[in-house]
Here is the input.
Amino acid sequence: MSQPLLQVRDLCASIEEGELLHHVNLDINAGETHVLMGPNGAGKSTLGYTLMGNPGYTVTNGTITLDGEDITNLSTDKRAARGMFLSFQNPLEVPGLSLEAFLRNAIRQQTGKPLKIFQFKKELEATMDLLQMDASYADRDLNVGFSGGEKKKAEILQLLMLNPKLAILDETDSGLDVDAVRTVSKGIEEFQKKRNGALLVITHSTKILESLHVDYTHVLVKGKLVHTGDASLVEEINERGFEQFVNAAAGK
Ligand SMILES: Nc1ncnc2c1ncn2[C@@H]1O[C@H](COP(=O)(O)OP(=O)(O)O)[C@@H](O)[C@H]1O
Ligand SMILES: [Mg+2]
Here is the structure.
């Protein structure tokens, strides 16, 4: 068997106040979609940030390997350059930087090469069209005055323009109306199917997953991965909640 795209081994991560992730193990192969669920405050966003190398979280144990390379101590921009992407639960507003300029910079940084402007423009137009974003948004300051749904669409636009090997989507569907969820879901499906990208989708809802093929579902409770199942686990949790896993984690 070839090695997994992402291999997380015995990962512990801390902030000043204490340890938030305890001995997490996770393998994601190229092209696979994994869903991460868990109660509020379980550490789902923390795992996303830690995988992406956010300096606010210190890895105190274990390793993160991408494509066979140990990236545990690499900076966020180096991880991005190697094909990792994290979409934020609450995207930042950046006055003075247009969405298009931001994307150009991000692609340049990721590839380390000058951008082919004509090709970029064409792709940007087509992708914004797919996401039902008005072309004028390209010239607007990144996320400034964007609605919740528009910010999430802008995140998916980044995903499709950057085309990473592995994308971590942190509650990209939260706070969206049904139409926006469908559009965002379509964007993710494009990434999954046409581009064979691997996904770690942090979500509470089944709606975004309807059109996506899910390979594995993981449950995180109090910083520990306590259970892994298949796609049907998402439905089961939505019906029965997290109680069984919380009790199991507490040894009840
Ligand atoms: N930078 C931080 N400073 C203080 N507490 C934090 C920080 N990041 C996360 N936490 C705490 O760690 C726990 C896990 O948070 P988080 O990863 O955001 O959970 P989730 O995304 O599963 O809801 C929560 O109790 C949260 O308050
Ligand atoms: Mg979170």
Observations:
- The first strand starts at residue 6 and ends at 15.
- The helical segments are 44-52, 76-81, 99-111, 117-130, 148-162, 178-193, 232-240, 243-249.
- Residues 6-89+163-249 form a domain with the Rossmann fold fold (CATH 3.40.50.300).
